[in-house]
C-alpha cells in the first residue's frame, strides 16, 4: 500500500521545450565529420586494429620537428593572459602574417592589421565571412569537384547554398573554365537564385593543382562583371612539392595580383582565407584568417569576432615560428621534401597496381580512379543500378578492412573516384596501403615483416604525442 502511494507520487515529466527552427534543421543535418571515423582514427595510435583514415587531409609528416620546436620555443606574454592586444588577432600575429604574406605570398601590397580578421580555424572564418556576404537562400559558385567542407561552412548556420559548377575534366585550371561559370550564373538568375560570391580553392582541393595567373585574373574579371565577391581559399599555399605533373604551375596567390591594373577589379570584393592547419600540420591549433581590403567586410566581421577569438597559446605558437627567420625556411624546406617523398610513395603504389590517378603538385592527397572496382552487386546479390550505391558498397568494404578514403560523391565529383591522403606518418600510411590492397583483392607489395613493424609502431603511444599535449 505504502509502496503504491510512493510510486504514484512521482511526478510525470512534461514535454521539453521545442528547439528553434534553426535547431530543428540542425537535427536532420549530418555532423561536420562522422564521429565514428574520428574515434577510430585517433584510437589507431593506441590500437592498430582500429580504422586508419586515408581520407582526411592532415599533415603528420613534420610533427617531430614541430613538437620539438614548439616545446623549446613556447612562451606567453602578459597580454596573452588577458583579452589580448586586438579583437581580431594580436599585434604579434599581425606582424607575423605581414612577414608571411610579403615573403611567401608575394603580396603586391602590404597586409596590414586593418586587413586581417583571425578566428578559430578556416571553417570558422569562412562561416563568419559568408554571414556578412550572403543571406539565407542565396548562393556561392564553386567549381566541381570541390572541398565538401564549403557546403558546411556556407550552410550550417547561414543557410547559404553551395552552387556547384560542372567544369570539363582536365580544364579546371584554364581561363576558359569561366565559360561554365557564366552559364551557371545565368541559369541561377533565370531561377531567381541570387549569387553573391564565387569561391576559388588555390591550390585546389581535391585535385591538387595550382591555378595559373591568367585564370586567377579571369576569376577577378568574372567577379567584377557580375558585381559579386571573390573568396580565395589558399590553405595549401605552401604545400607545393616536386611531382610527376607535366609542366607544373607555380603557386600564385590572389594577394600577388594587382586587381585594378591587371583585371579592372575592385579590390574590396576580394577576400583571401588562410591558416596553418595544412601547411604547418596543426589542424588542432584552430587558427584561420581572412585578408580583406574592404572596410565594410572587416567591420561587419569584427562585430562577432569575439565569438571566434583564437587562443593566445595557439597565436603564440604559430606567430613564433612565422617570425623565426631561421626555423621558418628550414621547416618549409623540410615539409616540401617530405611531401615529395610521400607523394612518390603513394604514386608508386598506384602505378604498381595500375590504378589511374590525376598527377598532383600541391596539397595532401591524390585523386584516384577506382571505378573498375565498384561492385555490381551488394552482399545479398542484389544488382546495383545506381553508381552512388555501388560507391557506397565499396566504401563499406574499405571500412571493414580498417581503412577509409574520401569518396568522390562527398566532393560533388564523379562516383568511383576517391581522394587518397598520403601525408600520414609513414608507418600509418604503410598499414593503410596494405589494408587497401586487401580490400581491392591485390597481393600485398610489402613484406609481411615490414607491415608488421609498421603496425606495431601504429600501436605505440609515442613520446611525440605526449610532447604535443604539453605544448598545446
Architecture overview:
With 472 residues, the protein is of the alpha/beta class. The longest helix has 26 residues, at 327-352. It folds into 2 domains: 35-64 and 329-471, Aspartate Aminotransferase, domain 1 (Alpha-Beta Complex); 82-326, 3-Layer(aba) Sandwich (Aspartate Aminotransferase, domain 2). The chain is globular. The chain has helices at 2-8, 21-27, 35-43, 63-73, 91-104, 122-133, 149-155, 178-190, 213-225, 259-263, 295-302, 312-322, 327-352, 387-400, 426-440, 448-458, 463-471; strands at residues 52-53, 116-119, 139-144, 161-166, 195-201, 229-233, 270-274, 288-292, 357-358, 365-369, 403-404, 406-407, 417-421. Helices cover 41% and strands 12% of the residues. Strands 2-8-7-6-5-3-4 form a 7-stranded mixed β-sheet, with helices on both faces. The chain starts with a helix and ends with a helix. InterPro entries: Aminotransferase_I/II_large, Ethylene_sulfur-biosynth, PyrdxlP-dep_Trfase, PyrdxlP-dep_Trfase_major, PyrdxlP-dep_Trfase_small. This is Pyridoxal phosphate-dependent transferase.
Amino acid at each position: 500500500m505504502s509502496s503504491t502511494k510512493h510510486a504514484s507520487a512521482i511526478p510525470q515529466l512534461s514535454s521539453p521545450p521545442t528547439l528553434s527552427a534553426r535547431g530543428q534543421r540542425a537535427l536532420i543535418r549530418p555532423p561536420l565529420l562522422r564521429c565514428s571515423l574520428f574515434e577510430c582514427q585517433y584510437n589507431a595510435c593506441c590500437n592498430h586494429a582500429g580504422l586508419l583514415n586515408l581520407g582526411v587531409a592532415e599533415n603528420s609528416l613534420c610533427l617531430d620537428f614541430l613538437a620539438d620546436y614548439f616545446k623549446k620555443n613556447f612562451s606567453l606574454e602578459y597580454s596573452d593572459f588577458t583579452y589580448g592586444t586586438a579583437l581580431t588577432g594580436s599585434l604579434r600575429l599581425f606582424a607575423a602574417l605581414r612577414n608571411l604574406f610579403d615573403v611567401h605570398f608575394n603580396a603586391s601590397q602590404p597586409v596590414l592589421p586593418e586587413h586581417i580578421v583571425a578566428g578559430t580555424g578556416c571553417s570558422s572564418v569562412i562561416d563568419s565571412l559568408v554571414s556578412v556576404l550572403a543571406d539565407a537562400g542565396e548562393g556561392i559558385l564553386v567549381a566541381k569537384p570541390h572541398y565538401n567542407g564549403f557546403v558546411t561552412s556556407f550552410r550550417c548556420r547561414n543557410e547559404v547554398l553551395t552552387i556547384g559548377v560542372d567544369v570539363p575534366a582536365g580544364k579546371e585550371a584554364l581561363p576558359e573554365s569561366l565559360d561554365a561559370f557564366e552559364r551557371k550564373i545565368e541559369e541561377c538568375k533565370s531561377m531567381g537564385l541570387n549569387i553573391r560570391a564565387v569561391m576559388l580553392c588555390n591550390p585546389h582541393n581535391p585535385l591538387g593543382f595550382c591555378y595559373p595567373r591568367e585564370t586567377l585574373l579571369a576569376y577577378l574579371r568574372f567577379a567584377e562583371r557580375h558585381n559579386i565577391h571573390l573568396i580565395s581559399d589558399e590553405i595549401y599555399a605552401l604545400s607545393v612539392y616536386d611531382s610527376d605533373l607535366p609542366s607544373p604551375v607555380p603557386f600564385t596567390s590572389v594577394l600577388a595580383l594587382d586587381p585594378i591594373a591587371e583585371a579592372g577589379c575592385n579590390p574590396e570584393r576580394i577576400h583571401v582565407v588562410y591558416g596553418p592547419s595544412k601547411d604547418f600540420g596543426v589542424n588542432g591549433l584552430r587558427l584561420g584568417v581572412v585578408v580583406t581590403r574592404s572596410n565594410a567586410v572587416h567591420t561587419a566581421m569584427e562585430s562577432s569576432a569575439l565569438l571566434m577569438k583564437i587562443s593566445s597559446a595557439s597565436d603564440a605558437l604559430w606567430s613564433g615560428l612565422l617570425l623565426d627567420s631561421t626555423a621558418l625556411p628550414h621547416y618549409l624546406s623540410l615539409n616540401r621534401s617530405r611531401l615529395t617523398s610521400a607523394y612518390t610513395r603513394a604514386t608508386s603504389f598506384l602505378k604498381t597496381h595500375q590504378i589511374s590517378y590525376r598527377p598532383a603538385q600541391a596539397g595532401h592527397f591524390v585523386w584516384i580512379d577506382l571505378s573498375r572496382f565498384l561492385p555490381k552487386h551488394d552482399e545479398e546479390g542484389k544488382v546495383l543500378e545506381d553508381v552512388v550505391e555501388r560507391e557506397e558498397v565499396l566504401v563499406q568494404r574499405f571500412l571493414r578492412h580498417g581503412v577509409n578514403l574520401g569518396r568522390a560523391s562527398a566532393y560533388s565529383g564523379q562516383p568511383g573516384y576517391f581522394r587518397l591522403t598520403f601525408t600520414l606518418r609513414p608507418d600509418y600510411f604503410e598499414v593503410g596501403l596494405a589494408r587497401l590492397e586487401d580490400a581491392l583483392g591485390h597481393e600485398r607489395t610489402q613484406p609481411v615483416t615490414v607491415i608488421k613493424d609498421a603496425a606495431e609502431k601504429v600501436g605505440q603511444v609515442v613520446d611525440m604525442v605526449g610532447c604535443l599535449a604539453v605544448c598545446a
